[in-house]
Each structure stands twice: as structure tokens, then as C-alpha cells.
Amino acid sequence: MNYQLIIGWLYPDLMSTYGDRGNIIVLKKRCEKRNIEAQVKNITLETHHRELEKCQLIFMGGAQDRQQKLAGSDFLKNKGPVVKKMVEEDISALFVCAAYQAVGHFYRPYQGADIPGLGIFDLTTIHPGDQAKRLIGNTVGEIINISGMYRKTIVGFENHGGRTVLGSKIKPLAKVLHGFGNNGEDGYEGAIYHKAIGSYFHGPILAKNPHLADWLITSALEVKYKRAIQLEPLDDTLEWQAHEFMLKRLGVSHD
Amino acid sequence: MIFPLVLIGKLIYFISNTFNLGSGGTWPGEVALYFQPKILDYFFSQVKKGIILIAGTNGKTTTARMLRQILTQFDKGHYRVIHNDSGANLLNGLVSAFIQQSSWIGKIDTDWAILEVDENTLSLVISNLKPQTSNKQKVIVVLLNLFRDQLDRYGEIDVIAGKWSKALKKLPKDAKIVLNADDPLIAHLGMTSRPGLKAGVYYFGIDDTKSFLPEMEHATDSIFCLSCGNRLSFEGIYYSHLGIWRCEKCGEKRPEPDISKWSSPLPGLYNQYNTLATVIVAKSLGINDKQIKEALSDFSPAFGRQEEFVVNSKKIKIFLSKNPAGFNESLKTVLSLRARQLLFVLNDYIPDGRDVSWIWDVDFEMIPSNVKVIASGERAFDMGLRIKYSMKQLRVIQNLKEAIYSGLEAIKKGETLYVLPTYSAMLEVRKILKGRKIL
After folding, report:
1. In DSSP terms, which residues pair with B395 in a beta bridge?
2. For site-directed labelling of A226, which of A61, B50, B109, B413 has its Cα 20 to 30 A away?
């Protein structure tokens, strides 16, 4: 029997700014190469939330402010509560950048009122002010809190003004080896809760981190088919060359 | 005291040129601005006829060059023009262009200044403009488009548009604003309902249903109404988010263009827009259709923009491709020219943007399976990875010289190797080809 997976892409035309589409391309292709039938369902403003309920893996990416506001009210009212329930039921999910902030309790801009989030993740984000430095650059983390990873490092690029602080009910995804991570202070990057990951490694985080992509696919299949699943290995030479290139450039020796 | 600053600037320019330091485009201006922040005012006030500012994500250089060609060549060229043609488009680049072309005491003898201006510098330049009403100095601002581009450096396009909107209100009544009707974000800047806008607004846009895309591309930005936030309806899209748009909810719609047809001297739909923008400006200056056509008949693009080299009877053509919208358009153009071998060169230095995530917004999937691809540049592996996931025939060759050489070997005599590089990569490719180091 072939496995089947429905990947839900939340707001592909609003929350998609920094090459976020890369994650969808990578997830789909890595499934197809293993004969896992992957279908991508675009969940837009107009999509009914019942369509979202059919998904077994969720992705939501970054956005510009105006687009985020447009998506934000729909997310808060319609799609978000569904996502919250799904995450609690161990559905795999990846929230990047603005989406990572949106699944927290609130985002506090440097002026104006707090923007409420879904509270799926126990975290809050505060923008420290107009003059505060944006946290921009290439970055490396060491995965913690996921067991059985065959490689520990993750590489990416971050570009965010908000500083995120985790609460007690959630764990960080990684330790920062280079760059800023959640807030540039506590040395942690991203968050993991049930089978859902949040990260500031924006855009195509999964392209150069195939182990993370495979963890999401495995988790999604295991929940759907209710048994342990071992994915067939793929030829990831180029993936790891791109990964190693960044480790080397940033002078991080690891693994 | 302007005189010593100009003198120092000219010396820097001279030294930089003599020793080929490659910094003549910005350093003279940088130094002059440090001592005299208002030096641009001083130069502007000497321009006899007027100042033309050109801004937008893609097409600034080509548009400025077309306009310069018309102004200097029509009727055997009686206008003198200053243009920052080195591509340096920050404040220091603009000042440098003036210093380079002024006399030793800072006097300028020019009719027009055509300035390509960086997205985030435009507001500053506009606030520097104090048109000389005594001699009826003209001010024209041309806004071509806004696409996502180097977000780590430029920021979000809505923020840029917001700054532009404020700056445009400072322009006087007799200034002209030339806007792209097909870009909802740009067109919105000129909506007559906008309070405080005094300058005259003119639109260019394309009316050609045959050029509509069969489906929307991925890298679209401004597809929601700027007035009410509703999703825009498109009668058709030419590329990215440029098309014939309207909002069903509040009724805001693409303005009727003042010009929509003109034969472009260069291939590519993006050059059609550049041409329309150029022509509407030229016409507004009283230059007639025949004069414009004649002046543009032998137009050749700037370096790195469809620039051609010949090596051993094989052609190499360079298409600068630095953001998703531009890259998609370059790809479409080279595929329509029946490319067989492509070379993508991805760098991540300051002029390219340090973040290479944007390559995942380019529609490489459009490349047919019989077209071969080589990925190179500082971020060759990242580019290669993107191509790998679009399932193309791929080779990754980090060394650029080797990559060019391999690309040439893979084609027959008479065929063309198409190179699509980011900005600094384009300079490297040219250096290799000009130095003929690979032969």
C-alpha cells in the first residue's frame, strides 16, 4: 500500500514572502521520491476550515505586515482554532517567522495595541522599538528536544524585529551556535510542542535541513497510520553540501 | 564651500580610475556629503531644464538609458544630460555623478539630470528638490514597479510605497509623476482621491490580452486591494502582480493608461514597460513620435542587461537576474530565444542581498526537461539545490571560470550560452569574459 499525505499550506498568497514555498516543494518532492502520494491543499482566506481538517501536515510561512494583518483576522477567527486542535492531536506542523509569532499568545508591536495570537504555543513576542536592531543574518542551531535525529545542526537565515520568549509549557527547538535565534539573548532558537515546530529560520528552512523535513513527514505518517514508520533514505549529497558550506563559512564545527 | 569638495571628489575619482579601484561611483560623493550634506541642492540648482528621477525594483537602468539616448540624440542631440550611469543610486552615487561631470570649481553645464534612485533613497532626494521656479525647472518622477527584492536590505515593499506616498505629496503642482498603471501598489500612489497630492499624474500600462499569463505566478506581492484589503480581481496578468486589476468590493481599479503601445527596442515584456515609461516622459517634453523612434532605433542595453559576448564563434548572453520577478522574466525571455544551456550564478554579497531564500520564489519549473542547467557562484550549492527540486538536468560547478567554460563546451558553434547572474556575479562574469581569462 502507498502512503498518502495531505499537506495544508496556510495562506500561500499572503503568508509567503521569503521563499516560503521552498518548504512545500521540499516536503512534496521528498514524499514523491518515496512513493508517498503527497497532495498540497492551499488554504486561503476563502477556504472553509473543514478543508483544513483533512490535512495531516500543516505549513504556514512569513508575511509582510499588511498581508499578515489580512491573514491575521481570518486565522484568529476561523482557521486558528482548528489548527490549535490539530496540533494538540499530534498533527505535524511547521510555523516559520510571522507564523511562528502568530501561534504564540500575542505580538506586541513597538507602537499600538498588542496583536493577539492563537496561544497554540506558550510564547510571546515583543518588538523592542523603532530603533532596535533587526536580527538579520545567516544562522546555525543545534537541535535539542527531538530524539533520534541523524544530524544535529540546522542552518538558515533569520530576519526579524520581534523578540520571542518561551513560556514554561514549551521547549526550544535548538541551541543557537551562530546568529540570534528567538531573542538574541537566551541562546535558544525556535520551539517544539507535540509534533509542531516553530522557527525564525525563514523561508526554505527545510531545503538545507532534510532531517527536519523527514522528521515532519515521519511524524505526520505515524499519526495517520498509527505505527512506527521508517522513511527510505534519499540521496541528499547536495542538501548536505549546501548545509556544510554554511557551517564552514560561519566557522561552526559540529557533528 | 563647495569648490574644495568638488576638487577632492574629482581627485578621488581620478585616483580610483587610474588605479582601477572601482570605487569612483560612490566615494567622491560620500566624502563631499560628509562635509556638505546639502551639496545635492547645489548641483540641482544648476540643472537648466529639469530633473528626472527614476525608481522601482526593476528597469531603472534601462529606462534611464533610453531616456538619455532620446534627450541627447533627437534632432542630432542638442540636450546635455547628466546620468548616474555607473548604477550607483544611493545619495553618494548621485553626488558622485555630478562631481564627475562638473568643472573643477563645481560648475555644471547640463540641461537635464536623469537619476536612477534607490528605493529607500527616493524620499530623501525628493525632499532635496527645490525646483527653480525662476527658470521653470521641471521635475519628473517615474515609478516603474515594486517587487520583493533583498528584503534584508530594502525591507517590505508596502513600507517603501508608504514612504514614497508621503514624499510625492511634497512635489509642487507643475511636477509630473509617471506611474505604472498595471502595478496596483504603484498605481494606488496616484489615485486622484489621495489628499495632498499636487503634482500631475500620468500612467503607462500594457493593453495586450495576448500577453496575459495562463495562470498567476507564485512571486506575487500586491494582489490585495490597497484601499480596502479585498482580494483583487485580474482580467489578466502580464507577470508577477502586473496586470489589469480591479477591486470588486470598493471599486478601485487599474487607471486608464495615457500610453499603452510602443514598439520596444529590446525583447521581454519588462522592457515593454521600460519603453512605455520612457516614451511618455519624452512626449511630455514635447519630443514627437518620429524623433523618439529615430533616437531609439539603435538603442543598446546597459552592461549585464542582455549583453552579448562572442567566444570561439559561440555566443554568451548575460541577463542580470536579481530578484524573483526579474528572474522569472529573464527565464521566460531566454526560453523564448530557444536556450539549450543555462548558467545560473548566485552570489550573496552586499549588492546581491545576503539572503538567498528568494530563489525558491522563482518558477524554475518552467524550464523544459531538454534544457541543461549549470549552477555556480558563491552559493552554487543553494542554487543547485533549488534546481534539483525542480527536477532539471543539473551540474553544480562552484568555480565560475570553470562553469562558463563547461557551459561553452556544452553548446555547438553558433549557439548561445545564457547566463543569469545576480549583480556581483554579473560583474564577475564580465570580468572573466573581458579579461578572456578562460581562453
Report:
1. B374
2. A61
Over residues B196-205, the pLDDT tens digits come to 899 999 999 9
Is residue B156 located within the same domain as residue B15?
A: yes
CB contact under 8 A, B224 and A239: no
B222 located within any domain: no
What does the pLDDT average to over B334-344? 95
Count of domains forming chain B: 2
Work out the end-to-end distance of chain B between its first and last CA atoms, rounded to an integer number of angstroms: 51
pLDDT above 50: residue B438: no
- Find the helix packing angle between B27-35 and B3-18, rounded to 10°: 160
Q: Indicate if B362 and B423 belong to the same structural domain.
A: yes
Residue B34 has pLDDT above 70, yes or no: yes
Q: Would you place residue B14 in the very low, low, confident or very high pLDDT band (cuts 50, 70, 90)? A: low
pLDDT at B148 over 90: no
pLDDT in tens, A76-112: 999 999 999 999 999 999 999 999 999 999 999 888 8
Closest residue to B158, CB basis, from A64, A157, A242: A64
Lookup: cell for A57: 501536515
The answer to whether the beta carbons of residues B114 and B156 sit under 8 Å apart is no
> Does B380 reside within a domain?
yes
Q: Is residue B226 domain-resident?
A: no
Judge if B289 and B323 occupy the same domain.
no
Evaluated on CA atoms B416, B422, B427, B432, the torsion sign reads negative
Say which CATH number the domain at B38 has.
3.40.1190.10
Kindly state the percentage of chain A with pLDDT values over 90.
85
Is the domain of B376 the same as that of B270?
Answer: no
Residue B246: inside a domain: no
Residue A193 gets the label, from left (phi > 0), alpha (psi -120 to 50) or beta, of beta
Residues of B with CB under 8 A from a CB of A: 148, 151-152, 156-159, 218, 220-221, 223-224, 229, 231, 354-361, 379, 381-382, 384-386, 388-391, 396
> In the predicted model, what is the mean pLDDT of residues B76-102?
87
The CA–CA distances, whole Å, from B143 to A41, A208, B98, B196 equal: 37, 37, 22, 18
Rounded Cα gap, residues A142 and A211, in angstroms: 12
Based on the domain organization, do B318 and B365 belong to the same domain? yes
- The answer to whether A121 touches A103, Cβ cutoff 8 Å, is yes
| Amino acid present at A167 | G
Is B130 found in the same domain as B104?
yes
Q: The cell 514508520 sits on which residue? A: A229
User: Catalytic positions of A, please?
Assistant: 97, 202
Cα angle for residues B319, B67, B81 (degrees, 5° grid): 115
DSSP state of B90: S
Q: What is the pLDDT of residue B20?
A: 56
> Are B376 and B429 within one domain?
yes
The residues, any chain, with a CB within 8 Å of residue A152's CB and separated by 6 or more, are: A142, A143, A254, A255
Find the domain containing B413 and state its range: 305-434
Task: Report the gap between the CA of A168 and the closest CA in chain B (Å).
Answer: 32
Cβ atoms of B262 and B279 within 8 Å: the answer is: yes
Query: Is this prediction's ipTM beyond 0.90?
Result: yes
Q: Which one of A18, A29, A66 has the shortest CB-CB distance to B158?
A: A66
Partners of residue A20 in chain B, C-beta under 8 Å: 360
Domain match, B130 and B176 both: yes
